[in-house]
Design goal:
Distance between the termini: 12 Å
Number of domains: 1
Structural class: mainly beta
Order of helices and strands: EEEEE
Largest sheet: 3 strands, antiparallel
Number of helices: 0
Strand content: over 45%
Length: about 60
């Protein structure tokens, strides 16, 4: 397992992220796989008048894979 650090920018809002990924090398080919599941309200999406819409946010402490 490897990890990459970077900035995820959506709707002009950037947030630092560290995401794990797998890497498989087969001859001259490399395959990388990972996931990013941003909290939409952190980027101003899924809100009505600045408030989260029901179901568009995750509870604090949840993790993504």
């Amino acid at each position: 397992m490897f990890a990459v650090d970077g900035t995820l920018t959506l709707r002009g809002i950037g947030k630092p992220v560290t995401r794990p990924f797998t890497l498989a090398i087969d001859g001259n080919a490399a395959h990388m796989a990972g996931r990013v599941q941003p909290i939409r309200t952190d980027f101003g999406a899924g809100q009505v008048a600045g408030r989260p819409v029901n179901g568009s946010h995750r509870k604090s402490g949840s993790t993504s894979t």
